[in-house]
């Protein structure tokens, strides 16, 4: 099976996963406590007004008809209208999505930059203070709740030391990059980095600890294999042995975990956004849940689910390119 066929197979699987997410998101409205009409209608609405609202929203139709209509509307890009703002749910969701993607991207970069060198150092300096320090850091990172770490970082670096701001997203990454490329103005990018540093560290810490431990384990496994001894016997410098040969093969499961942990990153982003008042999708979901704004809730869950599937397909492509035997499975 070639790579294109392998990815086609994964894409078909992904479509079924997205369909499952859509189905679950649709059913949540009927499973969760509370009445949609009570959210939309005025407090003093008469039964006639409530019935008219139910007819307008299509809630009087059988469940399977509502489900079919929902699927048809989704295929046309229609996620419905927000019950609270009476604006398109799609517009509200995609307006907030860049902020969440920026935070997830920054958190992932923090994790990769810190974890892979730490994992390699820990594996190549086994049973030394460096190894023990990296292991202790991993244990602390996995054990520390995101919300507590975020609050502590705000108290120390924002309130006490006044190094970083407590919250806010003054400019988007796209605007910052456009200013850098077309106006040669680096200030917006520096401002973006300044504001996203604490949220990114908060989000990336758990991720960093996990990848550090995984990189260490995989590096130890690779360094103990026969081909490494053969490479060393050729007189190749130890740095190249570690990074060009051992690390390349050790990164295969690491890349897989990076993709699979996207859900954890986005889940952590919800809490992190709340701590730092970051105007992303997580904050939007929390506000929508409090207001029972189901079109926004459902649309947000679908976008997150579809993003998860897309990232996993990309991970599969990287995995197959690093290990060509995978696409034959």
TrEMBL record:
An annotated GO cellular component:
plasma membrane
Q: Which PROSITE patterns match?
A: ABC_TM1
What keywords are assigned to this protein? Cell membrane, Membrane, Transmembrane, Transmembrane helix, Transport
Q: Which InterPro entries match?
A: BPD_transp_1_N (IPR045621), MetI-like (IPR000515), MetI-like_sf (IPR035906)
Q: Which Gene3D superfamilies match?
A: MetI-like
Task: Please list every transmembrane segment annotated in the UniProt record, as residue ranges.
Answer: 12-32, 103-124, 136-163, 192-211, 250-276, 296-319
Q: Where in the cell is it found?
A: Cell membrane
- What residue stretches are annotated with the ABC transmembrane type-1 domain? 97-319
Q: Which Pfam families match?
A: BPD_transp_1, BPD_transp_1_N
* Membrane topology (UniProt): Multi-pass membrane protein
Q: Which CDD domains match?
A: TM_PBP2
What the entry lists under PANTHER family is as follows: DIPEPTIDE TRANSPORT SYSTEM PERMEASE PROTEIN DPPB-RELATED
Family listed: Belongs to the binding-protein-dependent transport system permease family.
Question: Could you identify this protein by its name?
Answer: ABC transporter permease
């Amino acid at each position: 099976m070639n790579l294109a066929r392998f990815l086609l197979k994964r894409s078909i699987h992904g479509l079924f996963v997205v369909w499952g997410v859509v189905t679950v998101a649709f059913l949540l409205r009927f499973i969760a406590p509370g009445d949609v009409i009570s959210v939309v209608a005025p407090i003093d609405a008469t039964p006639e007004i409530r019935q008219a609202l139910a007819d307008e929203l299509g809630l009087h139709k059988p469940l399977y008809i509502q489900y079919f209509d929902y699927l048809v509307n989704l295929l046309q890009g229609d996620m419905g209208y927000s019950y609270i703002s009476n604006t398109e749910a799609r517009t509200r969701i995609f307006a907030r999505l860049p902020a969440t993607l920026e935070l997830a991207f920054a958190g992932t970069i923090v994790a990769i930059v810190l974890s892979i060198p730490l994992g390699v150092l820990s594996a190549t300096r086994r049973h030394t203070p460096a190894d023990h320090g990296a292991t202790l850091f991993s244990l602390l990172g996995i054990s520390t709740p995101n919300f507590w770490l975020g609050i502590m970082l705000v108290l120390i670096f924002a309130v006490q030391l006044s190094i970083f701001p407590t919250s806010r997203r003054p400019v988007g990454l796209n605007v910052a990059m456009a200013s850098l490329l077309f106006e040669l103005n680096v200030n917006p990018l520096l401002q973006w980095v300044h504001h996203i540093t604490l949220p990114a560290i908060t989000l990336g810490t758990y991720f960093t600890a996990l990848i550090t431990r995984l990189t260490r384990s995989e590096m130890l496994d690779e360094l103990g294999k026969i081909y490494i001894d053969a490479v060393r016997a050729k007189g190749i410098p130890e740095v190249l042995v570690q990074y060009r040969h051992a690390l390349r093969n050790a990164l295969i499961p690491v890349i897989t975990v990076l993709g699979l942990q996207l859900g954890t990153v986005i889940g952590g982003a919800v809490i992190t956004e709340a701590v730092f008042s970051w105007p992303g999708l997580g904050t939007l979901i929390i506000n929508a849940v409090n207001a029972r704004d189901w079109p926004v809730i459902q649309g947000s869950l679908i976008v997150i689910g579809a993003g998860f599937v897309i990232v996993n397909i990309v991970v599969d492509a990287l995995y197959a390119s690093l290990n060509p035997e995978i696409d034959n499975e």
